[in-house]
Amino acid sequence: MNVLVLGGYGLIGDAVIGRLLRDGHDVTGLGRDVQDAGRRRPAVRWIAADMSKLLAAEDWLPAVAGMDAVVNAAGALQDGPRDRLDAVHRGAVVALVAACEQAGVHRFAQISAIGADLASANPFFSTKAQGDQAVASSSLAWTILRPGLVIAPAAYGGTALLRALATFPGFVPAVMTRQPIQTVAVTDVAEAVSRAVAGSLPPRLAVDLVEANARPLAEVLTALRAWLGLQPARVVPMPAILGRLAGAVADMLGILGWRSPLRSAALAAVARGVTGDAAAWNRISGRPLQPLEATLADMPANVQERWFARLWLAKPVIFACLSLFWLVSGVVGLIRQEAAADILVSHGVSASLAHILVPVGSAADILVGAAVVVRSLARHALLAMIAITLSYLAGATLLVPGLWLDPLGPLVKTIPALCLVLVALAVLDER
């Protein structure tokens, strides 16, 4: 069959594509940033498109033409510069369903979310439910799948955060530790999609995909820590106000383009509990979905998982330190221009050149220090930091080589700062 998968490079979408390829289907993937996906999945035909802008049936007709089935694994957590929930979850799905009906696409699999509810005050859940409603009211042979907490070899968003918390030294900090969680292996989600595409599930089916029993969040964290091969540690409940504060900070970072899983929408999802009805799928499939223990046993962790989890926690600290370092350096240079210029003059730089270098250098420091916290500018800012630092070192070596022997080490100390920039570049990618 010819199958179109939306969001095919995401946590669930990539697993779905892998399964459909193994089933022998011809797969087309659609998403905003498909360059990396094309390298990872060269057997897939990729379409670069922003779903939030495909809000009419005619916008979708070229993509769905000739398709036998469509799988919608796309989604967003919260509104932001790159995400519009109503457009992605509702508007685009309404238009897509209409296009599928016009083009004669027969089967449609919708990856929804546990807790999707038209009456929810949370825009994530309400818009998801509106998209589900558009699918369910169509003439297509549809399947709506609502996974619990998806566990996969890859980790984005919330699952990455849980891995990171599980590696915390000495103890495991968490809010809402008693909230019930039901997990599902990404392979089981992909299996369900495979069956939906093949038509081996009952028609017009909406079903939860969760393990049989719920467990508290603290138990999930404990299991992840053991999976990572770390010594047992006590899960310490954190005050709820810390969670709200973290959510507020993450929401502000979302305005700057960072897609933190700590945003208020994610915390609201945990607060209601990530639970569903396991019995319905068990009746349909004849077997329960595997529990968390079996999921983790099927994907043993190695050193790369520990590196990732630890660096994930360190990443915001790294970027905050770099931003503050460059901002403070620039501000101090502007406030004390004369003193900074006198230092250069004392090492043989002409007064006129010194009074040019100090404000220009300070302005550059402030510019990159501010830009590095904007997600779309971060890579350019980090590269600029490297260029500025190397220029600073080269210029100082030529003009005032004695600074290398200065007791306070103004040149020597730039080397570890430069190394930190390289670390930030290495961990910048989110997916």
UniProtKB/TrEMBL annotation:
Residues 7-154 form the NAD(P)-binding domain. GO terms for molecular function: protein-containing complex binding. SUPFAM superfamilies: NAD(P)-binding Rossmann-fold domains. It holds the Pfam family DoxX_3. This is SDR family oxidoreductase.
